[in-house]
Amino acid sequence: MAMNLLNWKPEYSVGVASVDHEHQQMIELINAVYAEMHERRDSHSIEQFLGDVHAAISAHFALEENAMRKSGYAEYADHKLDHEELLEQIRDLMDHVQNDTDSGIPLLQERLSDWFGKHFSTFDARLHGKLHVPH
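Below the sequence we write its predicted structure tokens.
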């Protein structure tokens, strides 16, 4: 049985097909690696999972921030700050999981799920109709 950490919801859409597609791909990546990590539960797999997630999220944020800058998006600074806070939380979770795998996994699930739900439905929802991304 596949385990999902995150599920795409229509309210996460920012109305730009390429950004929405990338958000969906990011959720799929996180879910795929999370399921694998959950099955193995060894610290090396978990470290690799968190490294992959951190890299994928960093790359996505860079693209999203570039689109916001090019569009002259007024809330860019606050949005970027929220991105930086998530990346810092992931680094903290990496340390926590390395030190205590058993309590780290549920904490990881809760934090990522909470953050994505909040960020997609607030910060990213406000991008709706504000980004000018070439198709």
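The mean pLDDT is 80.
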